[in-house]
Each structure stands twice: as structure tokens, then as C-alpha cells.
Task: inverse folding
């Protein structure tokens, strides 16, 4: 079993794993959600993040211990530890942030104190509609910056392009910093297309292999890396060479990555 998607540790395991793993205790888990702008999801308490979870992401909590919660993300089944203070309960989210970022304000006024910076993809519950703002559980957010969850985007490449210029961040999933698989996941989840979190998982689960010419929306996979085509010649990817989400001619990217010991293209996938 892949530890990244197996909700089990030395003390507890998910109830549905009974008979499949050894654990002192099996537990159905409790439903909660991320209550801060972004939180790190790590393989162990205090460890370097594997991924990040954004505000409003639903999680199942299997253990709270010493200020850390062992959770599984509902959006992609990724498992790990988050700080217990970063999760909570509240109304079910109704909208997602649909711009690269936004601010939640104290009042229905752009000159009032800003309470939070929220990344694309963060989820909030709208409580009331005002003239130019939605009142939400985290403050007043400009109406033009939110999109109902029941109105997903339709083109993953369009979503990915909103992240152009965002700094590269290993394990990042927000417009503060993002990595290659985080970019691909954000683009597909916003279109209600199920998408795992890491590039090897994405290569296994997303799309169908093709040998046709490049097309917008195609995914290109290397060892430990992935990007999305925005047209027949141009790749968009979060990468450590540019330390940002950048456009790069696909032929140049293939040559550069091979020269830097990244190996050849392993898969060309199309949804």
C-alpha cells in the first residue's frame, strides 16, 4: 500500500482497513475542514511538507495527538499530519476563490482591514450577498473573486495559466508557491476532474497515452515532473529551473530537462 494514501500509522488506522493492516485501533474518523489560509501536510509531525491543503478543504481526522492531527484529505485521499490548530468545523463551503488570490475584509469596504489573503482554490461558505461583496465565514470577499462550487471551470489549461509567475515551492499548492504537480492538480480540481497530488500518481491515473501532436491541455511527464500544454508548441510548468510557473517551448524543455539529468519524456497523456 502507498503510505501517501493509506490512513494508518503506528497507533490507529481507518476502519475500512481492518484486516488489511495491523493497528492497535481502528477508527471511522471525524469530518473536519482546513480553517486557515493554507496548511502543510507532512509525513510526520514537524517534518518537511509533502503537500499543502487550502482553506475549506475537507479532511477526515483519525488522531489528534500532541498538537498534531493525522488526517486524510477528501479531495485526493492524501494522508499526513497537519497542526491541529489549523483544522476545525463550520458551514459547508459553497464557493471557491476563482482568481489567483483575493482578500477577505473585515467589512463590506475595500478600505476596511484585510483579514486574510486567500489563494485560488480556497473554499468558503457564503452567508449573504451584498452589493459588491459576499459575506463569508472568513470575512467580506469581492463577489467577482468567487465562483460557486457547482459552476466548475471547463479548461484546465486556462486555470493553470492563472498561476503564471507564481514562485516555485516544493510541495506547494497555493498562489503563494506551487510545484509542478500542485499546478496540475489545481487546474484539474477546479474543473471537477479528480486528480491525485503527486506527479507519479497523476501519470498513472490521468488521461490516456497518445502519440499524436501536442494539443492544449495535454500533460507531459518526466521522472518526477509534469507540465501542461497551452498550445501546440508551449508548455506551462512550475519548475526549479525558472523557480516559478513559466512558459517554455516544449522542444526546448525536453532538451533542457534531458541535459540536466531529468531524463526523457515518460508519458504524453490526454484527457
Result:
Amino acid at each position: 500500500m502507498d503510505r501517501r494514501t493509506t490512513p494508518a500509522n503506528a497507533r490507529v488506522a481507518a476502519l475500512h482497513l481492518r484486516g488489511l493492516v495491523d493497528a492497535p485501533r481502528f477508527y471511522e474518523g471525524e469530518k473536519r475542514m482546513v480553517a486557515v489560509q493554507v496548511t502543510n501536510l507532512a509525513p510526520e509531525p514537524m517534518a518537511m511538507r509533502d503537500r499543502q491543503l487550502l482553506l475549506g478543504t475537507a479532511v477526515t481526522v483519525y488522531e489528534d495527538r500532541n498538537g498534531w492531527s493525522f488526517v486524510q484529505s477528501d479531495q485526493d485521499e492524501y494522508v499526513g499530519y497537519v497542526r491541529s490548530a489549523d483544522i476545525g468545523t463550520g458551514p459547508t463551503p459553497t464557493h471557491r476563490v476563482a482568481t489567483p488570490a483575493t482578500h477577505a475584509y473585515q467589512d463590506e469596504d475595500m478600505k476596511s482591514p484585510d483579514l486574510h489573503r486567500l489563494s485560488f482554490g480556497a473554499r468558503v461558505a457564503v452567508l449573504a450577498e451584498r452589493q459588491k461583496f459576499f459575506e463569508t465565514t472568513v470575512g467580506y470577499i469581492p463577489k467577482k473573486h468567487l465562483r460557486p462550487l457547482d459552476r466548475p471551470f471547463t479548461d484546465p489549461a486556462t486555470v493553470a495559466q492563472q498561476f503564471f509567475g507564481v514562485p516555485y515551492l516544493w510541495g506547494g499548492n497555493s498562489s503563494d508557491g506551487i510545484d509542478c504537480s500542485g499546478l496540475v492538480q489545481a487546474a484539474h480540481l477546479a474543473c471537477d476532474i479528480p486528480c491525485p497530488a503527486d506527479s507519479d500518481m497523476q501519470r498513472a491515473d490521468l488521461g490516456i497515452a497518445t502519440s499524436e501532436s501536442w494539443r492544449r491541455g495535454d500533460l507531459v511527464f518526466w521522472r518526477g515532473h509534469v507540465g501542461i500544454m497551452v498550445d501546440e508548441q508551449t508548455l506551462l510548468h512550475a519548475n526549479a529551473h525558472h523557480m516559478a510557473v513559466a512558459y517554455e517551448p516544449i522542444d526546448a524543455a525536453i532538451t533542457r530537462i534531458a541535459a540536466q539529468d531529468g531524463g526523457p519524456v515518460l508519458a504524453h497523456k490526454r484527457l
The domain at 156-270 is CATH 3.90.1720.10 (endopeptidase fold (from Nostoc punctiforme)). The chain has a mean pLDDT of 97.
